[in-house]
Structure formats: C-alpha cells, structure tokens
Amino acid sequence: MRHIAIVGSGPAGYYTAEAAIKQWGDQVHIDVFDRLPVPFGLIRTGVAPDHQSIKGVSKRYEATAGTDNVRFVGNVTIGKDVTIAELQDLYDAVILATGAPNDRPLGLPGEQLANVFGSAAFVGWYNGHPMFADLDPALSHDTAVIIGNGNVALDVARILAKAQSEFHGSDIVSHALSALDGSRIRRIVILGRRGPHQIAMTPKELGELAHLTRARPQVDPADLPDAALDEALDPGLRKSVNHLRAFAAATGGADTDDAIDIEFDFFAAPRAIIGEDRVEEIEVERTRLEDGKAVGTGETYRIPAGLVVACIGYQTSRIPDVPFDDRNGRFANEDGRIAPGLYCVGWARRGPTGTIGTNRPDGFSIIEKIAEDMPEPAGKPGRAGFEALAQARAIDYVKFTDWKKIEQAEIANARDGSPREKFVAVDRMIEAAGKDIS
Ligand SMILES: Cc1cc2nc3c(=O)[nH]c(=O)nc-3n(C[C@H](O)[C@H](O)[C@H](O)COP(=O)(O)OP(=O)(O)OC[C@H]3O[C@@H](n4cnc5c(N)ncnc54)[C@H](O)[C@@H]3O)c2cc1C
Predict the structure, then answer these.
(1) Ligand 1: distance of its center to the CA of 130 in Å?
(2) DSSP code of 221?
(3) Which pTM value belongs to this model?
(4) Which residues, including other chains, have CB under 8 Å from residue 146's CB and lie 6 or more apart?
(5) N- or C-end of the chain: fewer Cβ atoms within 10 A?
(6) What whole-number distance in Å separates Cα of residue 131 and Cα of residue 351?
(7) Model confidence over 303-355: pLDDT tens digits?
(8) Which residues on neighbouring strands pair with residue 4, listed in sequence order?
(9) CA 251 to CA 221: how far, in whole Å?
C-alpha cells in the first residue's frame, strides 16, 4: 500500500487525491489534512457567496472524499499540531496544497490604519472564515476604495453594491448581511495602475455590475484606447473591454435614489493611505503606460474614503522547515518538487493565479511525478501511524462524517432563501460535529 498525505482540502488537494486514485486504484491510501474542521478551502471561503453555481464544484470533491481510499483529517494544522518531518516519517509522499491564504502587503504608508483591509480578510469576513469573522469593517463613510483590477476586486465591489434582496439564494453570512444593510457606501472607486486593456477581470463578472438594481458602473471615456486596438485582444478580454465601453457610454446601470456609483479609475496608483487612526483619504498618482508598465506622472490627487480593500494578491503561509520562495510568496519548488518525498500543488506551488479548474492538471501532474520518483511504496505506516500519533497527542480530528454533521446543521440553520448559515467559529463547528470543545 502507498500512503499519501495531502495538506489542504481545497481544489488542489482534492484534484490531487482524484489523480492518485486514478493512478494507483485501491493500492493507495490518502489522508487529506486541513487546519479547519470544514473542507474545500476557497470554494467555501473565497468564491463569492452569490455565485453558488461555482461553489457546486465541491460535489466533485465530495465524490473523491467519499471513496474508501480517501480520508478527511480536519482541524489539524500541519506545522503546528503535527510537523512536516512527522508526516514524512509516516507517508510515502507529503503534498502541500495549502493555498495562499495571506494578503500580500500593499507596502504603502498608512496601510496599518483601521478600516484598511486585504481581500483575504474582507472576503473572509463576508464568507465566514473563522479567522476573519470578527473583522467588523465600518461601512459608515460614503466612499470605499478598492485597489486592484482582477475578479476579486469585482467580487468585493458587487457585494458592497448589492441590495439586500439581491442576496437571496446566496450563503453570505448573516453578520455581513446585516452590516451591509446598514451600509452608507454610495461610491465605490476601483483603482487600477494600468488601463482597460490590462485588466484581469472576466466578462461575466464585469457584465453582472450592469444588472444590479443599485449599481451605476462608470468609466471615463478618455481612459479607453482606440476601439480599433481591441481587435488584437484575446476574445475574453475583448468582451470585458466591451463592457467597459458600455459603462463609458453610460448604457448600463441603475437610476434610483439609493444608486451606488462604481467608478473605474484607471492609470491610478495608490501612494499613501492617510488618516488619524482610521483611513480618511487615499493619495493616488496618475500613471501612464510605458512598455506595458505603469509609470508615475507626478500628478497626484486624494480620494476621501472610509474603507479601503486591497485586492492585489496573496501569499502562501510558511510551514517550519519547508523552503520558501520569498520573492514569489510560495514554497520554493521545481515543478512541484520541494525535497525528496515533499511536493506542492495549486496556489502553494504556482501562486494565486488561474481558475479553480487550473488546479486539476496541477494535481494530475504532481501524481505523475511521484509515480516517477517512487515507483514502489517504501512500507511506511500511513494511516495507522497517524492514528497512533493522534492518540498520543490527543488530537481529536474531524472526519468527513463529522463534517457532514456540521453541514447538516448549517443547512438546518439557513435563513429563508439561503442554502446554509455557515458556522463562523471553530468551536461551534466542533460542537455541531458532536465533539467535545474543551
Ligand atoms: C476571493 C476569491 C474568489 C475566487 N473566485 C473564483 C471563482 O469564482 N472561480 C474560480 O474559478 N476561481 C476562483 N477563485 C480561485 C480559486 O479559489 C483557487 O484557484 C483555488 O481555491 C486554489 O486552490 P488551492 O487548493 O490551491 O487553495 P485553497 O482553496 O486556498 O485551499 C487551501 C486549503 O489548505 C488549508 N491549509 C492551509 N494551511 C494549512 C496547514 N498548515 N495545515 C492544514 N491545512 C492548511 C486551508 O484551510 C485550505 O482549506 C477565487 C479566489 C479568491 C481568493
């Protein structure tokens, strides 16, 4: 029997488990560890709560998790409760699929001011990640600034702009829904250092803004390149730019008293966040493009704002004794190989890029490499060894059947029209699993 430990139960973790079963059939046992008592990583805590059809991909991971070869070992943090060296003693291969859960710092003066957040924290707040459930952002100022020109920036803008009725069918957590109900935000500025042709926003997400009851997306026509230049763009990007052109022509958006302006401020690089204790203004420098790069022009201006959310990317969390690539904020690796018997996949391998599906070929390719590196299992103890360690250390881990109890309780607690009300505290999850929280 071959024994594999996968650390992280997000898309990369479960696609890798699926690939291992394809490769070795019933000759492999896979333990999928997660620091949370609940599986599926960013499918649960990143993907927007009003995009339930995308979250549906977890059904596929459930099919993998439900096979006899695969076990979920939740509420166990690798690097803290169990070391990497211990896992390596027990399993033929250890695969880190821990994602990139930390916000990349902005590196600007004032970023420590209150009500300045990274998107991991802000999204975690409205999506019920236990680490960020208590964030309590103030939504009392009329202007919010979002930094970044990717889909996460659009998710944040959309969540801030939606009317309460538009959350019907979503699983946004109740604490966020009620905070948004009292929100005074009427203007959302999305800052991008470069221009409309350089965005990383997909057409579906951009198009959605035009259909919100309160949102008035706006683009300065002067920021748009000559329309003839759109011909050279990839079809997806061209569609996105078409949406921006429609916003510039003001053909989309709401016309109500409680309208929320969503202004795309292109060629705009944040330089400082200003305020006494809490953010009051953000200083921005106008840029121009030189060889595809944003270069400051020296012209600055300030935007009064009470909330700043930086959606500029993520970093992997370090794990003691695992080599780290500081420059790229992920584990140091060569095509997923870190050291003999130690591998990484998904965002922990390549950084925070691509879609959910991008993690699938990643998982399959790492299993091919393991098969190449270790044609035969080494006779390690695997699960039985982990059971002994868990008993000795009194680690009462959460099994997949326990998670199903948590899930049932979340479904039972759902408000009308919502698929579930997530538990946002680890203790409550453990309790719902019928375990002792002491
Ligand atoms: C806000 C946001 C919205 C997104 N929306 C979409 C979308 O709509 N469509 C789309 O295609 N993609 C979307 N993505 C991208 C998608 O979520 C990622 O491609 C994918 O989740 C990466 O998978 P992963 O398994 O590498 O990491 P993750 O999903 O982050 O999973 C990592 C897992 O590792 C666990 N872990 C971390 N450290 C440890 C440790 N030390 N010990 C044990 N466990 C640990 C974590 O708890 C987590 O469960 C979105 C991403 C974000 C941030």
Answers:
(1) 15
(2) G
(3) 0.97
(4) 153, 156, 157, 188, 189, 190, 191, 308, 309, 311
(5) C
(6) 21
(7) 999 999 999 999 999 999 999 999 999 999 999 999 999 999 999 999 999 99
(8) 30, 93
(9) 13
